[in-house]
Amino acid sequence: MDPSEEKPAQTVDIYRDTWVRFLGYANEVGEAFRALVPVSVVWGSYAVATAYVTADAVDKGKKAAEAHGDNPGRTTRVAVAVVDTFVWQALASVIIPGFTINRVCAASLYLLGKGTKLPLPVRKWTTTAIGLSTIPFIITPIDRSVDYLLDSSLRRIYNSQEEEEKHK
């Protein structure tokens, strides 16, 4: 292959294209282990996930600032990038999946307690396994649902403000 025909290297987004993305799932893992660990460990997993969400939002704000230089509307575009990323990540990576895994695990522990004679430690480990195994199945539907929610609400506000700025 001719070197002049090489494709330009794509920019790697550390928060979405590397192992760092898995930090956003820390709270789901914490929720899955809730029956086995102190609640402080679960809250710590939320701290890790929230730090990931915040770092990604700040990163997107910096990239928006660099992309828009000193052009008019720069502050608005940076704010939109930060808010959109933070809200999307908070909903799709922390709030909705954390609640979902919490409820799946709570229901599993309850049903195992009512429907089996397994000892409590076995029920707790089974609940954790169910919670962990649920995570891969909820990610895509939650991501798509949050996209739809934001496209139907918050992003309409952003887009209407951008249109108003263009017509001024």
Characteristics of this structure?
168 residues; mainly alpha
Record field, number of beta strands: 0
How far is the first residue's CA from the last residue's CA? Answer: 50 Å
* Low-pLDDT ranges: none
Secondary structure category: mainly alpha
Order of helices and strands: HHHHH
Assess the beta-strand content as a share of residues: under 5%
| Helix amount | over 70%
User: Which value, in Å, is the CA radius of gyration?
Assistant: 21 Å
What is the overall number of helices?
A: 5
- Major sheet, described briefly? none
The 3D shape can be described as elongated
The average pLDDT score comes to 89
Descriptive notes:
This protein has 168 residues and is mainly alpha-helical. It contains five helices and no strands. Helix 1 packs antiparallel against helix 2. It is elongated and about 65 Å long. The chain starts with 25 loop residues before the first helix and ends with a helix.
Element layout with pairings:
Blueprint: H1 26-32, H2 39-68, H3 74-115, H4 120-152, H5 154-166
Helix pairs in contact: 1-2, 1-3, 1-4, 2-3, 3-4
Quick overview of this protein structure:
The chain is mainly α. Helix content is 74%, strand content 0%.
